[in-house]
Amino acid sequence: MKNLTIVTEFVLMGLSRNPQIQTILFALFLVIYLLTLMGNVMMILVIRTDSHLKTPMYFFLGHLSFLDLCLSSVTMPKMLQNLLMQKKTVSVWGCVTQSFFLIFSGSTEACLLSAMAYDRYAAICHPLLYSMVMNRPFCVGMITAAWAVGFLNSLPNSLFTYNLHFCGPNIIPHFCCELPSLFPLSCTDPTANEALLAGSCALLGFVTLPLILFSYSRIISAILSIRSSEGQGKAFS
């Protein structure tokens, strides 16, 4: 019987092997990460404390800022750690967990952007009905649906990954763990996993992208029909 070595951790190759470049990259991405944290936290605090910003648009923007915090925090801390460490490893299940939160955050953000596009469409194309349509329960329902879709899109892909066995190469030529990077390293056939990932992402894209394109095409059409340049500028803003 062929002897197989069970892989318990992966090696993330990162962006460069040059120590000097790694130091520069660490400083650069640390600044970017800190600015991302501060900018999004400030956005959330301003929206929460300013009574003039209790509108659906800022309600969605607050959740978008929180999602940006989550998405950047899933990858950046580990990448910054690996830029300083000689041993650039991550456990198999830690890698799968990171992939779960990447898909979760990205899928939720796609749904949230669709909700924000619909909000702007309702505000500009149907201003008289806006307050009636975009009421608080409806906005909360859209946010809840976005998080639920993100979770349901990510969970099956991550659970199916636990069926894979890793016993060969363990080097990932990337700075974070993504499922497409794990599939070639599996000793078992990942065809079902690849089909599930492609199908779920395609389904999400076919639902969210047409809604975004439709909303903004109608918005641009409505704005261009405004005769005054001042009115067009305000609507575009």
Automatic annotation (TrEMBL):
<dbReference type="InterPro" id="IPR050516">
    <property type="entry name" value="Olfactory_GPCR"/>
</dbReference>
<keyword id="KW-0472">Membrane</keyword>
<dbReference type="Pfam" id="PF00001">
    <property type="entry name" value="7tm_1"/>
</dbReference>
<feature type="transmembrane region" description="Helical">
    <location>
        <begin position="96"/>
        <end position="118"/>
    </location>
</feature>
<feature type="transmembrane region" description="Helical">
    <location>
        <begin position="20"/>
        <end position="46"/>
    </location>
</feature>
<keyword id="KW-1003">Cell membrane</keyword>
<dbReference type="InterPro" id="IPR000725">
    <property type="entry name" value="Olfact_rcpt"/>
</dbReference>
<keyword id="KW-1133">Transmembrane helix</keyword>
<feature type="domain" description="G-protein coupled receptors family 1 profile">
    <location>
        <begin position="39"/>
        <end position="237"/>
    </location>
</feature>
<keyword id="KW-0716">Sensory transduction</keyword>
<keyword id="KW-0552">Olfaction</keyword>
<keyword id="KW-0297">G-protein coupled receptor</keyword>
<feature type="transmembrane region" description="Helical">
    <location>
        <begin position="138"/>
        <end position="155"/>
    </location>
</feature>
<keyword id="KW-0812">Transmembrane</keyword>
<feature type="transmembrane region" description="Helical">
    <location>
        <begin position="195"/>
        <end position="216"/>
    </location>
</feature>
<keyword id="KW-0675">Receptor</keyword>
<feature type="transmembrane region" description="Helical">
    <location>
        <begin position="58"/>
        <end position="76"/>
    </location>
</feature>
<dbReference type="InterPro" id="IPR000276">
    <property type="entry name" value="GPCR_Rhodpsn"/>
</dbReference>
<protein>
    <recommendedName>
        <fullName>Olfactory receptor</fullName>
    </recommendedName>
</protein>
<keyword id="KW-0807">Transducer</keyword>
<dbReference type="InterPro" id="IPR017452">
    <property type="entry name" value="GPCR_Rhodpsn_7TM"/>
</dbReference>
<comment type="function">
    <text>Putative odorant or sperm cell receptor.</text>
</comment>
<comment type="similarity">
    <text>Belongs to the G-protein coupled receptor 1 family.</text>
</comment>
